[in-house]
Specification:
Elements (H helix, E strand, L loop, with lengths): L19 H7 L1 H4 L2 E3 L5 E3 L4 H16 L14 H15 L10 E5 L6 H10 L2 E6 L2 H13 L6 E5 L18 E6 L7 H4 L20 H4 L4 H16 L3 E8 L5 H10 L4 E9 L2 E9 L23 E5 L1 H12 L8 H15 L3 E5 L5 E8 L7 H19 L7 H10 L2 E2 L5 E2 L6 H6 L10 H4 L5 H11 L12 H10 L20 E10 L2 E11 L2 H20 L1
Parallel strand pairs: 3-4, 3-6, 4-5, 6-7
Antiparallel strand pairs: 1-2, 7-9, 8-9, 10-16, 11-12, 12-15, 13-14, 15-16
Amino acid sequence: MALNKSMHPRNRYKDKPPDFSYLASKYKEFQQHVHTNLTGKVSLNFKEPEAVRALTCTLLKEDFGLTIDIPLERLIPTVPLRLNYIHWVEDLIGCGTNKNKLIRGIDIGTGASCIYPLLGATMNGWFFLATEVDDMCFSYATKNVEQNNLSDLIKVVKVPQKTLLMDALKEESEIVYDFCMCNPPFFANQMEAQGVNSRNPSRPPPSSINTGGITEIMAEGGELEFVKRIIHDSLQLKKRLRWYSCMLGKKCSLVPLKEELQQQGVPKVTHTEFCQGRTMRWALAWSFYEDVIMPSPPSKKRKLEKPRKPITFTLLEYTVKELRNKVASSEPVPSDAIEVVTAVVEKILTDLKVLFKRVPCGKDEVSLFLTAIQNSWVHVRRRKRDGARQLRELPRATSDPFQSTEADSTSQSHSSPNTGPDGAERSNVGAGEMAGENEEELPANGGNSLLSVMPLDQESNMETEERFSSSDSSSTVLGTDSAVEKEKASSARANPEAEDTPKGSGSCFLFKCLVNVKKDGRNAQVEMHWVEGQNRDLMNQLSTFLRNQIFKLVVS
């Protein structure tokens, strides 16, 4: 049962699902529906109505001492799911705060099993008014109450069709009930009941059969209109009940019903989820009493997310030795393999302008906390090629064809060459004093100055940023020529530095991660653990870049 851990904390089946083997050995009626495969695993076919009924009756007998009869033509309830609802009602009314008070409840449409009143009366001693419109269900419900000797706590009432609360309470004008509960008909028509146009095609088919009579599974307008009728009744009854509640089969019904209650000015509204196996249900409750204490709705994150595995790559012992030999000539390198790899990683991060600092960690490992401010590792090869191309094209880019003839410029350049502060030869644009007035000045700040004289097309720059922040950028991070050339051709006019910050980024960093360098036998392993940021793919890209740079250093 995949969702059993999300059952109500007090549900007896939460951590101890039914033992089919034990139940089969004790109850012959149940044994005939149990199947054992070659491995000895015991299972039940939930597509068979007889098997589902046998399980429900067996669980009620074994765990609650209740003996019931249910016709196959009517709804067969599942015990764990109904038990969730009972426990939630306990939370609503504060069960246990006043044990001497008789708790009164109403079950709208109790069904043939009369399961809610039977469970509530047996477990908590609650008094129930159980209403029913179907003749067969009324007959079986009455029989089930009588054979369990609970007639003093459960009153089964036959009511007219489409009757909910108003008619049922006509004769009891002085009594204030603590709650009402209802499992309304889910479907509006036969097609919905069969899953046509109402079930997501991607969802697997139901694992159990859908039993129930027409009045139990279908109603005009489905569960949405049915519950709205209960809301309408509650607006007239108001404080005749402390809590109104109902169970929903569709999550999409929850929001419009809460909006309806809000529009009607109902002061107290809450909801919850019911889980059993692969079945999910939702419940809604509201009250006109200001002093009631509402149980908190379920957290949006039902369970903690599983920690993601780190991105790792391994450096073999031979690779670590080669790294030590490559960098030993330039600066002192520690003999420890972990420190060697860490030193190389730190050097690459420094060149990339990625912020990092060492943090305490375990023995035989080094940890670095990284903060990436800009994307300085993607398309490095393309940037170098663009810089070289711009350097080659610089003389043509800085010449002014409107100043003089090409012959005059050439003669002047032969007589008095003019070399800029970046070392590139530039042609004069005119003779005498005109040359000094029209020559374009270049900032003397190294290679980066070459980028500043290139035209910046803002629209092209925005398109480039979008490509860099998309998932397609991960395919170019490996440095394949075809991918780089394709990116280069599509954004030749863009400012290369503009890609450092993704478009629309509102934070001051791209991501943060923890890098652990530790021993893996005789090898070294680098792990990158995600902490937070805009896109986890950026950490993937940086990991690939680090690995490629290390291997390139070894083979160079």
